[in-house]
Amino acid sequence: MLRLAASSRRGFAQLCAAAAPAATSRLAMASMAERTQIQASILSWGAADAGALGLGTLLPPALQPQSQSSQSSQSQSPRGLDSGSGLPRSLGAEQPAPLFVSTPTRVPGLERYVPYAIAAGWAHSLVAVQNPGLGTFALLGAGLNTSNQIGLIDPETRQRRRQHEAADFISSQDGDQAVPAKAVSDFTFIHRFDDQPVVSMACGRQHSIVATATQVVGFGNNHYGQCGILPFRARQSPDFVHLNLLLTGASRELANTPEMPLRVACGLDLTLILHADVLYASGWGADGQTGLGVDTDVRLLSPIVFEAEDFVGEKVHHFATRADCSYALVSNSNGVHRLFTWGNSEYGQTSLGKKPDKYLKPHVVPGLGAASVKQIAAGGSFAAFLTADGCVHTCGYGPALGRGNHTLESLEIAQLDRALFNFEPVVQLVSGNDYVMALTVTGKLFAWGRGQWGRLGLGHTADAWVPTRVPIEGKVTSVACGVDHTLAIVVDNE
Length: 494
Known about the structure:
mainly beta; Mitochondrial_GEF_domain; guanyl-nucleotide exchange factor activity
C-alpha cells in the first residue's frame, strides 16, 4: 500500500470510481506530492485456481512453468471438480492454491505503487498503477495467460510474434526474462506507459482492452475479432495479437477530453469503444451483441447507429456490456436522451418486456427515465441501472435481480429498496455475468447474485438474493467484477 496526503483522500475516493468515466484520468494526473500519504490497497476474492487474485499462490501443475511444476508434487483439481474451504489460509508460494477465496484478501507486493484502475475477466486481472517516485504509469497483470490476455509473452512466443510481424511493439522491458506464459499468480509488470496514464480498461473472456489518453491497445484472443483488428497476414489468421492500435484509419493521437471521451468495455468476446461520442463494436456477434444488425462476427471496430422513431442519436454518454447483452445512453441534437439495448434477450435482460432470442440492432428501452440513468450494469441474464438519486433498478432473471428469493424473474424494471443499502446513495454499479457489486457514497460495498467460487466476498459460496454488505475494513473507492472473481481498491486511512 502507499500513503497519500490527507488533503487528497476525498478526491482519491471519487477519482478511483471506475464507473465515473473520467475518474482514472483525473486521478492519474493528480500531482505526485498529493499521492505520497494515502494507504491504497488492492483486495481480491473469488476463484483462485488460475492466479487471477494475484495472491502469489502456487498454480495447478497444468499452468505452472516446468521448473515450478517439477518442484511440487501437489495435485490440484480443475475448477468444478473439487470444493475448497473458501476460507483464507496461508497464501505463500509453498502452499497449493485454494480453489477459491471467499473473503476479501489484501494483494501483496504492491506497496510502493498507487493503484488507480482495475479490470477483471474470466480468469485474469489487470491493475494500473503509478510509481510516485518516478512519476511513471504501469500496467500489471495476473491470472490465466493462455491466449496472452494479460499481455505477458514468454521469450519463445515473443520471437515468433516478431518473425510474423504480429505486434506493433512489445510491452515488457524484461526483453529476455523467462516469464511463464500460461499463467502468473501475482501481479506482474506488463508495460510502462511513462507519462500516459490509463484512462479506461476492460477484460473479456480471453482478451483485454486498455486505453490511455492517446491510444487504445488490445491483446489476447482475437478469434472473433474482439481485439478490433484484422490479422496482419490473412493466410496465417493468428487468433491473438499483442498491443495493437484498434481504431483502424484513425489518428494515433486520439483525443481524450470531456468533449471527446475515450472509454472501453468488454463482453465475453466483444469489445465496445467510445471515442468522440461515437460507440464502436467488434467481436462475437451470434446474439447480435455488436448492435450492427448482423449475427455474424465483426472483425473491425465499426460504429453503432442509434435511431428510433423521431430520434437520431448523436452522442453516447454511457454504455455497458459484460456478457452478450449491451446498453447505451444516447442523446440527440436537441438534448433528448434515450436508453438503448441490443444483443441476447432470452432472459428478458434487455428490459423490453419480452424474451425474444436476440435483438440485432439497438432498441429503445421504455419505462425508465433515460435522462436520470447515470450508470448501467449489463449481466448475462439481467440488467441493473443506477439513477441520479442513487437508487438501483433491475430486471431480468436470477438472484442478481436483488429482490429476494421469491422473485426469480421480472420483465419489468423495478427499484430496489433503499434500506438494502442502509439508505445510502449508490455511486458505482458493476456486474459480473451473474452477480452485482454496488458501492455507496461512504465507500461501503454491497453484493448480490450467484455466490459460486466466493465471488461475492461474503465468506461463503451461497447465492445472495438481496444486496448484502461485503465485510471490508476501509473505504472502497472502486470495484471490478470478472466472471468468478472480484477486485477492489480500498483506502485504509480515509
